[in-house]
Amino acid sequence: MKRTTPLQKYAAQFRYEHKNMNDRFSGVKKHANELSKLLDGMFPKDKKEKEKK
Fold it and tell me: At the top level of its lineage, which domain of life is listed (predicted)?
């Protein structure tokens, strides 16, 4: 039976935590993009004025 070193345990825990974190952030990015589109639709004139400056 092969023994698991402390470094292997740490690496496995790090990978597990960050794999799950990426899933959460992808949901946040999706909602942020939807909110951005909504706000751009509400205030299209303000955005055009800022681009000209």
Answer: Bacteria
Give the pLDDT of residue 34: 85
Q: Which pair of structure tokens corresponds to residue 4?
A: 């698991």
Q: Tell me the DSSP string of the chain.
A: -PPPPHHHHHHHHHHHHHHHHHHHHHHHHHHHHHHHHHHHHH-HHHHHHHHH-
Nearest CA among 38, 20, 19, 42 for reference residue 30:
38
Tell me the C-alpha distance between 31 and 8, whole Å: 36
